[in-house]
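Lecture 7 notes: from sequence to structure.
We start with the chain below.
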Amino acid sequence: MNANILTELSRLLGADRVLTQREDLLTYAFDGTPILNEIPGCVVFPDSTEQISTILKLANEQRVPVVTRGSGTGLSGGSLPVPGCIVLCTVKMDRILNVDPANLTALVEPGVITMKLDEAAQPHGLFYPPDPGSMKISTLGGNVANNSGGLRGLKYGVTRDYVMALDVVLANGDILKTGTACVKDVAGYYLKDIFIGSEGTLGVITKILLKLVPKPKARKTMLATYSTMQAAAETVSAIIAQKIIPCTLEFLDRTTIRCVEDYAKIGLPLDVEALLLMETDGHPVVVEEEAAAMSRIAKENGAVAVTVARDNEEATRLASARRSAFSALARVAPTTILEDATVPRSHLAEMIGFIQKTAEKYKVKIGTFGHMGDGNLHPTFLTDERNTDEIHRVEQAFTEIFEKAVALGGTITGEHGVGLAKKKFLPLVTGPVGLGIHKQLKQMFDPNGILNPGKMF
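Predicted structure tokens for the same chain:
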């Protein structure tokens, strides 16, 4: 990193907010993606939109790459540094600026932890629905940059559905305000949507206006177990066909069930092939009706057993079967590669069967869990990055899985993003015309290519 640039950054932020020593930089050489890493040129911690504007002006003039980072929980390599870059870490910008019950909104900075917003909304009888698995540690800026989903996505949607307005600093330092607090706003192009899911390649998000919704008055949690994955998939289709939209409809396969039980000691049966976590929320009368209907539908479609939580404590215990899946699988092997192929619900059983056959074909171990209600699967490879031959077989396996997902009308990622890990697969989804438009947008917003270079495409 150029010494003059470091001097200027230290003058702007203070020397304590500019990291340059190798031992400090090592922490920021990784995100949540296994195997991949790169040491940055420096790491900076701005605390205002104006500071970020000045940093980007300097970087753009000097052609220095900038990689924006929150908590670094991403699983596609989207916040991995590139050589000689400035890592712009937003964790100091962690204020909830306003919770507005009258307009059902919250104004936040990008470094706010996802769960903290939900906690701040609760006293007002409100809640923030998007709940990625990393919600206890991921930041809202990262959620917006990756359009994060979560367990409640089937009923409540994903991050995009809650973003009303953004402040974004562009590559040249200009500050763009896009969107409003109005429910209806059709003035001009909807520019804010371009930045949602753009993974830091088009601008740096510095303020976010988010929609909140009334907190449901009641919730009911159930756990159904199955002797076949087909029966679990048929249960999901039958529930949706009955016009029931659960807030959560999650599944675990046999491998994941065993790992979760070994890890969390929940009391899960080990002789089943699949498990469904089902939750309904809303008015107490509707919740009771929907819970009874879902339990009945599960049994009619071959559930071995259906457990209905008696209280919040038991509901939390049952839900932990799904929420602890990744942690449980991560204990099995030195390297855990969590992917997220997504298909239409009607192809879930076929896709899950294909994943199992692909694991057998390439002699790799895969545990699969995910959001069965919205078709988002998480085939998780349990491997060892030191075993070069095995890693090659893993790469072959997930290449076939992505190709199959797209062939079934699905996509290569439902919530993790493209980043560095999946950029070679993006043309499968966009086609040449779509990919060309991506590149044109990048060129327009960032003509010098300083923002998160090498990611997405």
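Points to note: The chain has four domains: 3-89, 96-214, 218-327, 333-447. The chain has 15 helices and 18 strands.
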